Amino acid sequence: LQTVWFCCSVLVFAAGSGASLTPTYQWKDDKTGEAVTCEKCPPGTHMKRHCGRDRRTECAPCPGLHYTEFWNYIDECRYCNVFCTENEFEKRKCSPTHNRLCECRAGFYRRYEFCIRHSVCPAGEGVVANGTAHEDVQCQTCPIGSYSSTPSGTEPCRPHRWCPPGQIAIPGDDKHDTFCSSCKKYGSEEIAKSVEAKRLCDREVMEYVAQQHLSEKKLKRLMTVAKKRTRENATEQEEGTLLSLLDSISKNEHGRDFIEEILFILKKAKLANLEKKVKRWFMER
């Protein structure tokens, strides 16, 4: 009867005060063996001594690096046993009421308890959903009229540009932007009469070839041939980007026009498709 009365009195008090009920658990009095209803200890504490017929539950605060997250009647608080790895940061510190919480740092996402680096969309694909701490980057093939020229884990596909009046628009694709050319075509009367016009065309051919997205194998072949041509015309070996090599070749022509030298290099590098494009847009248009 006393146990029933205890429960009912708690209910009546809670209802009258508007307070929420303190969670309870069933126990036996140490001395009498009588069943009693004990109050649980709140988060951040643990049970130091069970309640009895004439006393309430005794609770004690959690020591450092220990916690309890829920109402409880455990003898000891739990140890903060979560430790952040090199690809994580501490989002929430260990506290009396929570374990340490780690989250993947920028550029990584959680998968199967590990933080994995976000995917990189290849050239020709763009990011349609940025990666988060819990989701990988989502890539999508660039639709017609847009492109992505370099691998990226953050950049979307970009629209092809429009060329201003008076320039030739060399169409782009999913990996290349539209190339706007002011060159009047090799072999034209204007280029024959103007050194500046020829230099303009030479520069545009260099930039057009250098911006092409080639596989690693094809680029290596092209760079090898270009370096060989510079060594044949320079007192010391040239190094650097493809554009810088082509620029060096343009200043040391082999007794032929630069466009002919470029076509020779592309043929030697076995880049027939690119060779056709250069002829199509700079010699035959």
TrEMBL record:
The keyword Disulfide bond applies. It is found in: Secreted. Its main location: secreted. Residues 61-102 form the TNFR-Cys domain. Keywords: Apoptosis, Disulfide bond, Glycoprotein, Repeat, Secreted, Signal. TNFR-Cys repeats lie at residues 61-102. It holds the Pfam family TNFR_c6. Residues 1-19 form the signal peptide. PROSITE patterns: TNFR_NGFR_2. Disulfide bonds join C62-C77, C84-C102. This is TNF receptor superfamily member 6b. It comes from Lepisosteus oculatus (Spotted gar).
